[in-house]
Every structure is written in structure tokens, then in C-alpha cells.
Amino acid sequence: MSIGYLALVLHAHLPFVRHPESDYVLEEEWLFEAITETYIPLLRMFDGLKRDGIDFKLTMSMTPPLVSMLQDNLLQERYDHHLTQLEKLVEQEIERNAHNGHLKYLAEYYAQEFSQVRDVWQHHDGNLVNAFKQYQDSRNLDIITCGATHGYLPLMKMYPEAVWAQIQVACEHYQDTFGQMPAGIWLPECAYYEGVERMLADAGLRYFITDGHGILYARPRPRFGSYAPIFTETGGGGFLAVTRNHLSRSGLLRWAIRGRQSTGSFTEIWAGMLSTSTSSPTSCPTASARMWALSITKSPVRAWACRTRSFMTPTGLEKKRLNTRPTLPLTGSVRWSICTA
């Protein structure tokens, strides 16, 4: 029986905004909305999986600007006030719509949601970074970094010192925050230019995530296109490049590789990339999934020695047509499917 491998890679970033001189700043609302509607619900999902005994694996980038805002005392106080205002508003809506069944139901639903958000917020003393860190420490979550200010690296390549600063400061900030060096980096806007991996390797990083066509048009063309990681020529044994699924911006790429022992009730979701793997090389992720993306750079990654990696060279051919999508010319014993989210 085949095992399906699903690599979930989430990208968390917001531009840095902090205005102590003003009582209300529109851009700070973006952070507050993200905390309420994204980061705390994600933590609630992690808590639920852990409570159910599910040893989940997930990779998630947390950019230095976002981490800095989440750790800022002023912004934590302002979010607490923001959440209090939401709770007051929804109680007023329940009272105002006492005789309107549907609107009252909606207001009561949000009252319950905000109450659960409050519970998580208070449980972690308003420090969501530490909340995510505990799941990294338990090896459920692999947190990777991004550019120090999310700078667009291809536009900065004429100033190598600026590119190096983006990478080095990001790694130092990560180490100060999480107590270890990051294994990987989500390139800002997924933008790659040829040669940037040398600086990434010098900073101690082991892999980067770029946009689909950066690998799809690599030199030489990778055997599996953008559906498997490749190694660049940089860094002795190679520097790993991983891409998102280029077929659909809301797609998840699922690979099933033959040859692994399993039972009918067992499914392994491997998303820890290289830093959390303790099993054989075949457990290396063969694809990355991304919820949303921006197509930025046309510079391809130069592929090298892909065929020497056992987890990239399965034998035999099996293709499967799904819905109305055309069958892709894949080689190897890879059975693939696209599951839109």
C-alpha cells in the first residue's frame, strides 16, 4: 500500500507597523485581525490535534517583522484593548437583535469565537511567538525565517551587502527568538536570483523556498519539474531548493511514493523538511504546498545532481488523470493528484 506525503508550508508575514504617538492606526488593525482570524485559530487547531494524540508535522515561516510585532508590549496591550472592544460590540449586537433570530445567532456565534480567542490569548500571556515555539520544541512545527525586512532580494543584488544584511540579520533574529539557527528560509515574495544561495549557505541555511518557475526552468531542467526539490551547485553537497505547486495558487500537491511499509490506518504527513526528519532519506518532502503566492522572479535555479538522490529517483511510471486536468508527462513511480483547498 502506498503512503501519501503532504508537505504543508505556511507563510506568515505582515509589514512592521508601530505608532505609539497615535491612539488609532489603521495598519495596526491588520495585525489585530490576523491575530484574531489566523494566528490564534491556528494555535487552537494545533492544541486540538495535540489533544487528540495526533503527531502532526507542519512547516511555517515567521518573518522578523511579524515576530517583532507579536513580541512588542505596546502592540500586545493594544490588541488586548481591540479584543475587548470586539467583545463589547458583539454583546450589544446580541441585545439589539434579540428578536431577529438569524442575526442573533450570528452575534452569539462571534461571541463564542471571541471568548475562545480570549482564552488562548490569556493562556499564553499575549505572547503568541512563545506559543508557536512550544510546538517547534515538540517537533510538530518547523519554523523557518524570511528576509529581515522582507526586502525584495532581486532588486537588491547590485548591493550584495544589503542582501547579506537581510539574510544575516534574519538568522540572528531567529536565533535570539527561538534559541537555534533556522534550517530554511522563505525567500521574500518567493523571489530568487542566481547566486543568492551562496549567501544563504554562508549564513548556515540548508534550504530555501522559491516560486514555481524558478525550479521549473532550472538549468538543466529537473526531471520532475517543480514537483520535487532540487539541489543547486552551491555548498559542497548541494543546497536544497523547494518550490510551491505552480499549477494552482490554492492547490495542494499530493505525492504517493511506492515502497514504504504502512497499514491501512496509518497516514504520515511529513512537513518538517530536513531539520526534523529522523527516518530514511525517502521521507524527504518531494513537494511543497502553499496556500497563496505571488509570481515574482524569472531567474531559474541551476539544478545539480538530482539523480544521485535516492528519494528523487524512483523507477517505473504511473500516471493518473484527475477531473479534467491534463495528465502531466511524469517519470518515476510517482502517483500524483491535485487537491484544491
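the 2nd protein, sequnce then structure:
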Amino acid sequence: MKVCVALLVVLINLSAAWADGLVFDDAQATYNQVKTIRDAHGFHALEALANDWRTSRARFPSGNSKLHAFYLVVAEVKGRDEASWAAVRQFNEDWIAAVPDSATARIAAANFYMNWAFHARGGGFANTVSDDGWRLYRERLAAGMKVLQDGARHGADHDPAYLASLIDYGNNLDDGIDVDKQHWLQCVAVDPEYWSAYQTLAFAMLPRWHGQAGDGAALADEAVRRTPALGQTAYARIAMSLGQYRNVGLYTTERFSWPRVKQGFDDMLKRHPKSATLYYQAALAGQVAGDKAYTAAMVNRCGTHGWGGIESARLVRIRTWLKGP
């Protein structure tokens, strides 16, 4: 969830429209829409919106799920102090009390508990976590898992976010990759383009967690076989999600194929030809692969348009890299 929250911030900074018809994902408008309802404690309105986006499989121009963004916003904690965390916890309890049969509220609460657990643990290596940090981490994970399991009794298994959360909890509670993979397969059946589930499982399969070198590429292979109508899209999506982590060795240790990743971006852009977000991500992928010709083509497609916020610095670094030897 911590990575997903960072992704939401990036998407908001990339919310813009360009004169030539390319558009970034309208994440800012989506964020404002959900946050306004959340801040007003409009529990039934949140239910209606989530149900609409769940049943319609609402997407941004890039193909990313609006339902995924919904859950990021409702679990957001603005402050880092304990009062801020307590306020969101109370919000979740009030939501469940107002709509007792809500699966959506329980998924949101479970996501909150995951974030709260990592707030206690911290983001450092395991040997840097205090005894108290570990205790609170485990207690909060257990509380979140209990809420998530309760959601299953209220129809949560029809929501891809529930299944993605089960993968996240399974990874952190050491349920085992086989269990996590079964939840992923269920998610593919519910919504084959709910990319958060793919990304969460791929992360769990890294050697730093519960996998071995090359497991991510093997998952990408299987994902392509299970989504034949999407070409190499799933392969590129999984590679893109793992490429954001330092020292992964995407094309060495993890054994991904750059030609297949490129084909995956081609397949995505055929389905989403106006997505500036995808052109931007393709440029980043090209830089990770060291393919200057491809990266230059993606950057040139975007021209001199502004990239907004924190990402502008990354674009400058890409252009500097392209000018180098």
C-alpha cells in the first residue's frame, strides 16, 4: 500500500491535458471527487461510487483502475501524528456502523490497517525495527486481516481490491506464495486488468521476500497466457512495477525480456493511444533497459509538454541521459 500511495501522488502530479490530444490520467479530479465525499462522511455516496466503478470497471485513459484509486483515497492519512491515524480509524468504524453489510467499508478499513502497521514498523530493513514496532505491526496486521475476512461474509470476493489486499496481507503474514497466487488467479477472473494485484504478487515473489530470481518473469509469462486478448500488456505491467525498485536487476537477475516489454507498451498504446501517462512510463522503461533510441522516440512523441510536479526533474534526467555517450 505504501508504494501505491506514492503512485497516487505521482498520478496527481501528472494530471494534465495537452493540446495535441494526449492526456494524463485525471487523478486530481478523481482524488477530489472521492475526498470530498469522504470528508463529508457520505458513506452511502461512497458505496454508490465504488459500486459504479466496480461494476463498470472504470478506467483512467492509461487503463489504470479508478476503483484502485478510490481505495487509496479513502485510506489516506494526511498527518503522521497518532491523532490523524485515530481519525481515519474512527472514520472506518463509523462507515461500517452506517452500512453494516458493506464489503467496501471493510476493504477500506483493511487497507488502513496495512498502512497503520507499516507506520509502526517503519520503512527500514528488518534489523532496524524495534521490538515495539514489530509488536504493533503484527497486532495491526492481525486486526486488518480480521476485518478483511469479515468482508468475505459480505460479498467482498466480487471486488478485485479485496483479492489484491489478500495478496498484500498474505505476503506480510507469510501465508506462502501458493496462497497468494490463488488469490491473484481469483482476481484475474473478476477483473483481468486490475493491475494492483499483479504488481503486489510480483513484489512478493522477489528474492527479498518469498521468491527466487526469475520468479517475477515467470509470473509475467503466466499472466500473458491468462490474458491472451491483451497481448504482452501484463508482461510489461509487471516489469514496469518491479523496475521502480533499485537493485532488482530487471533484465539480468530477474530475466525479463526487453523486446517483450516494448511489445507490451505497443499493445497498451494501441488500446490507449491518447494516454500521455503510458508514453511517459514507456520512456522510463526504455531508460531502465538502456535503449536510447526507444526512449528518445517516446520523449519526442511527448514533445516539449510539461510533465508537472516532481516528475519534471525525472524528465530532465532522461534528456540528460539521452545526450550522454
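Confidence is low (pLDDT under 50) at residues 2-19, 306-310. The longest helix spans residues 131-152.
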